Amino acid sequence: MSQSSPSKFRGRTILVTGASGGIGAATVRRLVADGADVIASGRNEAALAALQEETGARPLPFDLTSEDSIREALSGLELYGVVNCGGFGGEIATPQDTDIDIFDKVISINARGSLLVIKYAAPAMIAAGAGAIVNVSSQASLAALPGHISYGSSKAALDNITRVAALELGKHGIRVNSVNPTVVMTEMSAFYWGRPEIEGPFLSQMPLGRWATEAEIAAPIAFLLSDDASMITGVSLPVDGGYTSR
């Protein structure tokens, strides 16, 4: 795993959504260690306050399902970078059993919410003439997973948002990429992936044969935000222990 550098993001402000969750909080910690001024957004204000106490990241709660909330929160912010990590897992269901209300909520948060953050973060980044955006997608957008019709669809939409945003914003010096992790055993994922009948067969198909850690997702996010990735844009990077290479 790459080592943190206190000077990598010095003088750069980066917004991280979903910062009250496992991967988002790990990303905040990594970016702060790399010298960034981090703005942490999420639904759980108590978790954001604890993260501020731990890291110094500035809390900025807003509602990813509300365009007005996102517009108001991001108005006037001068950002170098954005990490769209806010997400909702939805349900495990087949297409014929899907609850469309849950499907709509998953799409609203994972795809629509990320697009709205880009919409309202981009103008300041365009004015600055530089920046980087990383969307946290999933292996579920790259391979069909049982029961993941809603979540996988939302992340496939997010991958397309990544590619189109990279195309549109590249001329302004802004790079847009996604990371596509395998399962990190967070509270959101444990209810399904932690079941022995699910975990064993899945890991047996993965070359590295284990779940990812939160830090192992935060590290490539930091890389894609950094100048080390200055010629990389429009990429969906699997961080999945080789699962989608099968």
Can you describe this structure?
This protein has 246 residues and is α/β, with parallel strands linked by helices. It has a single domain, classed as Rossmann fold (3-Layer(aba) Sandwich). It is built from 8 helices and 7 strands, in the order βαβαβαβαβαβαααβ. The protein has a 7-stranded parallel β-sheet with strand order 3-2-1-4-5-6-7, with helices on both faces. α1 links the parallel β1 and β2 (37-40). α1 crosses α8 and α4 (100-128) runs parallel beside α5 (149-169). The longest helix is centred in the middle third of the chain and has 29 residues, at 100-128. It starts with 12 loop residues before the first strand and ends in a 7-residue tail after the last strand.
**So what's the CATH class?**
Alpha Beta
Tell me the domain tally: 1
Shape: globular
Q: What percent of residues are in strands?
A: 5-15%
Backbone structural class: alpha/beta
- Low-confidence stretches are none
Whole-number radius of gyration? 17 Å
Please state how the strands of the largest beta sheet are arranged side by side: 3-2-1-4-5-6-7
Q: Helix segment count?
A: 8
The N- to C-terminal Cα distance equals: 23 Å
Multimerization state: single chain
Primary descriptors:
13% strand; single chain; 246 residues; alpha/beta
Compact overview of the structure:
By secondary structure, the protein is of the alpha/beta class. The chain is 44% helix and 13% strand.
